[in-house]
Design goal:
Elements lengths: L13 H17 L4 H5 L7 H10 L1 H27 L5 H21 L1 H4 L22
Helix pairs in contact: 1-4, 3-4, 4-5
Length: 137
C-alpha cells in the first residue's frame, strides 16, 4: 500500500446541495414514504430545514407537492395490495385489514378532497370489509 492519504470529498455547501436534496426527497415521497422518516436518514436535513427550503423556492415546493400527490396514490395502491392478498388465517386477515385501514385514514386526513368523504372539514372514516374463505376456528 502506498503512503498516499486520500482526503474525503468536500461536502457541498447547502445551497449547492439543494437541487439534489429536493430531487432525492421527491423520489422518496413518490414512494409514499413520510418526510420525517427521510429527515432521520444520515446526512439529510431536518424537517424544519426542508420547510425553509420549500418556503424559499416555489419551484421546489411545487415539485414536492406533486411528489406527495404521487405518494398518496402509492399508499392507496399499497392498501389495495394488502387487501387483495389471500390471508392464511383470521389473524392475518385482521392485521392486513388494520394496515389498510390506517393507510386509508391517513390519506383521508392528508388529502380529504381526494380520499375523504364530504367537504373535508370533518373527520372521515373509511370502512373496509375483508371477506375470506378461511373458516373460523
Amino acid at each position: 500500500m502506498s503512503g498516499v492519504v486520500r482526503q474525503p470529498a468536500p461536502v457541498p455547501a447547502p445551497a449547492a446541495r439543494e437541487p439534489d436534496l429536493i430531487a432525492c426527497l421527491c423520489e422518496w415521497l413518490r414512494r409514499g414514504k413520510p418526510l420525517a422518516e427521510w429527515c432521520r436518514l444520515a446526512g439529510m436535513p431536518s424537517s424544519s430545514e426542508v420547510y425553509r427550503l420549500l418556503d424559499e423556492s416555489e419551484s421546489a415546493a411545487a415539485r414536492v407537492a406533486q411528489a406527495r400527490d404521487e405518494g398518496y396514490d402509492a399508499i392507496a395502491q399499497e392498501a389495495l395490495r394488502l387487501i387483495d392478498l389471500q390471508p392464511e388465517d383470521q389473524v392475518e386477515a385482521a392485521w392486513r385489514r388494520a394496515q389498510a385501514d390506517v393507510r386509508l385514514r391517513l390519506l383521508a386526513c392528508w388529502h380529504p378532497q381526494r380520499y375523504g368523504r364530504g367537504s373535508g372539514s370533518e373527520v372521515s372514516t373509511v370502512q373496509v370489509q375483508v371477506i375470506t374463505q378461511v373458516p373460523r376456528a
